[in-house]
Amino acid sequence: SGPATVSPTGSPTGADQARMAQSGSHLTNAQGTRLYDTDHSLKAGPRGPVLLQDHHLREKIMHFDHERIPERVVHARGAGAHGVFQSYGTASAVTKAGFLAPDVETPVFVRFSTVVGSRGSADTVRDTRGFATKFYTSEGVFDLVGNNIPVFFIQDAIKFPDVVHAAKPHPDREIPQAQSAHDTFWDFVSMHTEATHHTIFFMGDRGIPRSYRMMEGFGVHTFRLVDAEGRTTLVKFHWKPKLGVHSLVWDEAQLINGNDPDFHRRDLADAIEAGAYPQWELGIQTFPDTPDQTFEGIDLLDPTNIVPEELAPVQPIGLMTLNRNPSNFFAETEQVAFHVGHLVPGIDVTDDPLLAGRLFSYLDTQITRLGGPNFPQLPINRPHAPVNDMLRDGMHQTAVHRGVAPYQPNSLDGGCPFTAGADMGAYIETPVTVPEGRKVREAPESFSDHYSQPRRFWLSMSPVEREHIIGAYTFELGRCYEEAIRVRTLQVLANIDPELCSRVADGLGLPAPEPTVPLADVEPSPALSQVGGTWPVD
Ligand code: HEM
């Protein structure tokens, strides 16, 4: 069913609109006029010239010419599925979010994606994977727009155009399409060392998942949960697949790309069609909302950091089951618009500077991608809660709004619905104290350690995972044209671990440099290893 803004005059909504486009037993033109032939242009005799007056030809070709919309600037290739999220109620202790109360079921739509390649690229490339979930809650839409890797390449959104320009195909030849084995990517990450942690993650096995059904998902940033009394808790979101976390090995990934470039989307769709519904448990790591927003010395506002699960266990709060394939890829998987700013009461953002940029970016890009500001009215994006906004008109408006007063306060359309001071289940930003300071363009000192956590990751890997990582760096760097980039990256690896560096250096036929920073004294986190694994799998 559609929201209240759509068609108060009684014109068709939602499923009715679909029926409208494909109802009746006769083929018609877009205006509903019956056609008697759609196979031949109108000509002056069977061999004569085509006539300009053929309005059916003109309409058919015009529409076809405009079938494509721009692909996403990142995460262009994806696969989606519908499902349901069943809350355990365990999060009620820390959030008032209604969909996390005991036994609440919420419909969801998930889109998995690769990041770098274009819409037609292959599935099993080495890349980060997107894991974006839209919860259609009774309090409005909540989007958890995450990845399968718990950290990100950059700490500040102002670097996003840089990292994406570096990772996308070279502007001259437009290769490589989707793999990281190219000069611009390694040029950037070898100089922008805050990318080191994300890079070692996707040089590891998580960069080539076996199936979307076997990936973890992470909200990456620290979020703030708020309970009914206004008490706050900092959290990180985790999705844990019931099937466990599994990856391909590199040779398999390469072969599959040739044999079946649609391997991941086929696997997801086939599993759901066969009734083998994939499931993930949603969990949270919780941290006290202290003024410095750190935990065990880890800056929670730095999205290049994880908090090891051994220090803050992931507590399960609900179960997601994907049980229905999209019936129309374009209308669902392509037109879905996720946004980190789609929040519901009880879930708030933090001052992570990467998150701040994302709060701007998603809406902005969707204006271009989905042709104007009315994309929330597209069926896949419609909230399942009533909508009563004062947004009006615009490109591709489908609502026919009533009344004369789309402004507040007003006395003409029933007056102002707000009651001063009352909560009314509204979304209220947490009144956290904003730190005072000089206006500056600089990162905090606590963002400056780029090697301790990558070293922890390396030390947490099993022997076979380490071999995969060495092989991945050697392969990728071996494909770079510029030797200076290889040499610079070896320096980064030396600062993570001498063995990692010397093994890759051997493979490349280059000398291994000495570390330029003291090697961090960190404990491994067994939960990071796919071989160890800490999450119960049944
Ligand atoms: C798309 C995740 C950082 C801009 C996506 C998608 C995911 C995602 C999963 C695909 C959504 C879909 O399936 O439709 C992340 C994560 C990030 C991150 C986890 C860091 C923690 C950023 C940043 C920016 C950004 C810093 C910009 C400042 C975009 C844009 C899209 C996108 C423009 C395309 C959206 C669309 O066309 O609908 N991101 N992203 N992302 N992301 Fe991010």
From TrEMBL:
EC number assigned by the record: 1.11.1.6
Required co-factors: heme
UniProtKB keywords: Heme, Hydrogen peroxide, Iron, Metal-binding, Oxidoreductase, Peroxidase
Compositionally biased spans, kind Polar residues: 2-30
Tree of life domain: Bacteria
Every Catalase core domain range: 28-416
Reactions that this protein is recorded to catalyse: 2 H2O2 = O2 + 2 H2O
Keyword Oxidoreductase attributed: yes
Keyword ATP-binding (UniProt): no
Role, per record: Decomposes hydrogen peroxide into water and oxygen; serves to protect cells from the toxic effects of hydrogen peroxide.
Entry similarity comment: Belongs to the catalase family. HPII subfamily.
Protein name per UniProt: Catalase
Annotated organism of origin: Streptomyces griseorubens
Part of the full-length chain shown: 57 to 594 of 758
